[in-house]
Amino acid sequence: xxxxxxxxxxxxxVMGLAAIADPVPQRGxxxxxxxxxxxxxxxxxxxxGVVHARSDGSxxxxxxxxxxxxxxAVGEGVTRFVRGTAVYGNASPMVGGQGAHAERLAVAADxxxxxxxxxxxxxAAALPVAGLTALDGLRQCGDVRGKTVLVNGxxxxxGHLAVQIARAxxxxxxxxxxxxxxxxxxxxGAAKVIDFEVEDFTRSGRKxxxxxxxxxxxxxxxxxxxxxxxxxxxxxxxxxxxxxRSLWRRLSRGPSVFTATPRDRDxxxxxxxxxxxxxxxxxxxxxxxxxERAGEAFAAQESGRMVGKVVIRVGEPxxxxxxxxxxxxxxxxxxx
Length: 336
What we know:
By secondary structure, this protein is an alpha/beta fold. Helices cover 29% and strands 27% of the residues.
């Protein structure tokens, strides 16, 4: 089968299209025919060697966590899925497994989920990592209804979904992004937009109940200046703080600091599905490239100039089959 692979650690020049062996499902696994996958910062960090997969370091490597497609084969012990089911999920390139930038993917059955009705394969492939990360960050903040939430990096994969989820949960959202994208971010639910090239919100004097740093580059101390008492600072980068400092923040009612991570739990996928079907949350697909031009997808994602997610289309999915599946799913939901 065809896959977009890295032949070694390095820059874009180490990647290209290659033929690799077709996957065979082991016990508890499913082989998915991938129709779309997306590009995350983790992919080029793995390629550059900034982040190393927990594997033997062998090449070629296939990256890509997010995917959407149809079940092609099931391994022994799998009963939740049958051939032809439209699914999406999160592969495991971080733990040495094959990533999703390929025609087919063998993945543990507990890492895939039925696609929410109403999403295209491209939209579904843009949702898992970014959506679960945004969801986890806001979950740790508790009830945000009526509260002020600032999202830094609001045009990114995590950021644009954090804007939508916070707004759907009743928050008053301020988005930090470039002026060129202000209109689009307002359409996604931001009540106010701050142009980061004109204003440093950490020195504005305004206070927010939650600062969600989807970009991950803000320092804890600078953010603390603009968080209201008892507020929360969420970041997509790991935060290390000592016990004494953590205790002092709690005693002084300083901001709590959380790291948002993409939990891979059934209940979180169920929440995402409800947000899609009820609150009309939608991942923004910034651009779509065929697998043969996956290098351009990486370049677009790395540029940092896209609103939403960059997606790789793998083959031509059977849209009629998807329509039949979604029709049956809606009928089943209605009957319940």
